[in-house]
Design goal:
By secondary structure, the protein is of the alpha/beta class. It contains ten helices and seven strands. Helix 9 packs antiparallel against helix 10.
Amino acid sequence: MRRSGKVPSRRRLDLEQHLLSFGIRPFNSDDYWLWGGTLLGPRRAKRFEQLRQPLIDGGTVEQMLAFYDYISRPIVADVAHSTKTDAIRVSGDAVESTLPSEGRILDVGCSIGYLTTYYGLRSARRNVTGVDLSAKAISRARREAAKRKVENVTFLSGDITESLPGEKFDAIVSTQVLGKIANRGNALSLVSQALSPAGTLVSIEAFGNCSLAESYVAEAAECRLTLTRFDFVYFSDLGDNGAYPVFRFALGGNAVSPDLPHEYRLVLDKLGRLSGTEEENPHG
């Protein structure tokens, strides 16, 4: 089974259709494993696992780069990203609802550009820049943007813990990137410097407990980033329900101080109800 290759029009762009044009398909059952194994074939599947295994317990920057280089390839990217299609969709929609309709947008850790191009296609008045450590992912992203004739998107290869493009941005976006990288403090400091005075950092991270979220907010505060809004997005992939916290930061403004342990308990209770397990394990 291969992706259709049909590119959605700018006028009636739907994120699920847009992701499908990248080969990223929704699955909510074990059907994914048969589809993915068949699509990859034995040789690619073996290589995928060889590169993925070192990252389970963290891995080095070199190991991470090797993995992300590999999953930038057609077919491999289809399978790798389709494990979390709904998570990508709800994250992209949550970001899009927050972004200004015009101005400069920076998408850090953009991978092959499926969300970066979406933000560009949603408004021609935006200038969107995607940056990623993997030069191979950036090369693929540029090809995908050209195929879709997205002229207001630029892609750059670079390490976001060392430097960001030398201009001010009206919004900076992280979808499951800033929360998992080493030297996160360096990246947050650079993000703070790269934001325009009225700019916003929209950060959706895969933090499974409140301690991780609390540490993140504290690190951001040390970099002059004020938490102005906090909530969650919910998704369902491969038959499992999940949620990601959504952080919105600004340079100053009215700060919020959510009770993160309480917020996480509410989310875990909701996930338990969605899974029908709240009586057995009310806190997940």
